[in-house]
Structure formats: structure tokens, C-alpha cells
Write the C-alpha cells for this entry.
Amino acid sequence: MRIAILTALVVAGCGGSCGLNLERMIDQPRYTAYEACDVCPRGTIMMLPPTGTVARTAPLDPPELALGRTADGKDLTAVPLPVDAALLRRGRNRFDIYCAACHGRLGNGLSQVAEMMSRRPPDLHAEPYASRTPGHVYAVVTGGYGLMRSYANELSVRDRWAVVAYLDVLRLARGVQLSELPPELAEEARRWLK
Ligand code: HEC
């Protein structure tokens, strides 16, 4: 209806003779995919991507690092990056920002958000979660798991491994006796426990 009025207005406006061709976009000369083309190197209009072109969605890092799995599909059993203080600090920072809201800052599933969820985020230190391999946890963060969404957009590959490594630290830290700590750390822990 609106188009009819518009057309009527246009036609009336230029007395029906201003040569307006509404089909001109459809009729213009153009190639369709796979059509023959004399000037194209392969003779058809569709060309091959230049050598070395990488798909926008292709993992850029070595597959084990990017996917957390070996070529034959086995989860990595260790973090494939040097685990140093810088990586762990980064892991704590990212974990506190992106995971703690649900899993709690200790990873034990105690958080205000968790209390409100119909399916509670699990205590990552209880079985079977405590025995999950680093590769599995990395894949969970990368691809999501059940009700938990993927964090691949927020966390780079390195950041994801940093979080995985830090989760191991949280696990190790559980049940450590004060007497097992180096004296200066035991002293600091005592101060916090007061
Ligand atoms: C919005 C809440 C929420 C956030 C944020 C969140 N998770 Fe989860 N997570 C869940 C829930 C809920 C489950 C249980 C999913 C299910 O079983 O359907 C879960 C499950 C898991 C599991 C267990 C998967 C398994 O093997 O069964 C791991 C490991 C995990 N999350 C790690 C993380 C890490 C690491 C982060 C931060 C990058 C994170 N989660 C962020 C809610 C969350």
C-alpha cells in the first residue's frame, strides 16, 4: 500500500517520464559465483584465497594450547605454559573477576550468586571436579559446560590457562597446615586468621 502511494507520488511528480528504473540494482552487469571470467587467473570468478590465508575462526595457537587436547583428543594433564608467579597472579586476577561470582573466591561454590541459582555452580574442590584434568577445565572455560557459558570471548588462551593454573593453587592451598608453610608465610597467615 505504502509502496503504491510512493510510486504514485513519484510518477505524478515527474509526469511519469523521469526514467526512474527501480529494477536497476537487479539488472546491472555482475558476475555470479563460478561464472566464467576471461580475466581471472582460474577462468572463473570465484578465486582461491591467497596461500597462507587463515580462517577467521581457526585457532591460531598450536592446537594443544588452543583446545586443551592432544591431536588424538586426550585432555592435557598439565598446563602447557610455564607456570610462574606472573601467570598465577594473572590467573587469580581473572578468576576473581570472571569465576568467583559463581564459584566463590576459593572455588568452593560458596557465593551469593550461587545461592540464587537453580543449578548451583559446583564446589570445584569436591569430587568429581577435584580430579578433572587441566585440559578438561580449560575446555570447560573455552566452550562452556551445561548451564555454564563459554568465557572464550573474555579470556585469551593464555588467560584461560592462567585461570586453570590458579585453580590448582586453590586446590593445593586447601588443607595445608600452618606448620607446613615457610615461616614468613605462616606469620602472615596467622595475622589474617586472627
Ligand atoms: C554465572 C555463573 C558461573 C560463572 C561466572 C562460572 N561458572 Fe563454572 N559453572 C557454573 C555452573 C552452574 C556449573 C555447573 C554446570 C552444569 O553442570 O550444568 C559450572 C561448572 C563448572 C566446572 C565443572 C565442569 C565439569 O567438569 O563438570 C568448572 C571446572 C567450572 N565451572 C569452572 C569455571 C571457571 C574456571 C570459571 C571462570 C572462567 C567459571 N566456571 C565461571 C556457573 C558458573
User: Anything to note?
Assistant: The mean pLDDT is 88. Residues 98-99, 101-103, 117, 119, 121-122, 124, 129, 132, 136-137, 140-141, 145-148, 151, 163 surround heme C (CB under 6 Å). The domain at 82-175 is CATH 1.10.760.10 (Cytochrome Bc1 Complex; Chain D, domain 2).
